[in-house]
Design a protein that fits this description.
The chain has six helices and six strands, in the order βαβαβααβααββ. With 182 residues, it is of the alpha/beta class.
Amino acid sequence: MNRRRLVWVRHALATSDPATPAHAWPLTREGREAALRLAPALAGLPPPLSVVTSSECKAVETAEALCEALGLGLAGVSPDLREVQRPWTDGDYRAAARAYLRSGSAPGWEPRDQVLRRLSRALAEHWGPDGTTITVSHGLAMSIWAADASDGIDSVEFWDTLTFPDAWLVDEDRRTLCRLAG
């Protein structure tokens, strides 16, 4: 049985603006408050706790709020935890995202296998042998990883259930995920 734990956190609600690249979107005031409210659900996890975040603004701000509330130092930053690279979608973003998750590719969207490789690199670097590693990332990236790493998870169904923010504990031995808060 593993002594290490992994928690995937989806960032809190961000301000979306088509004039600003998605990686630069900050949290809303409500998003920051929600990130602070998420912390008690993570406080009882086996120590030591460490936090690593995507380099995108909304994830960094979520990680900062969690670290503040949990009394931790600064979060590590891994660009490999970023969201799936994709073009701006003028139409129905949710439909486009679902189609991408079903197929693993779409014109202009980062291929699924590339997403998995970079997420695996980030975890290899930051997921320690003991304690709990909290990764702050993004919905599409998390959904791709969850479907690959767990038995019985459909990436579209998983993504459809995610909230802003959300937290999932990975059971590495059983290849399952359990929602902690969301």
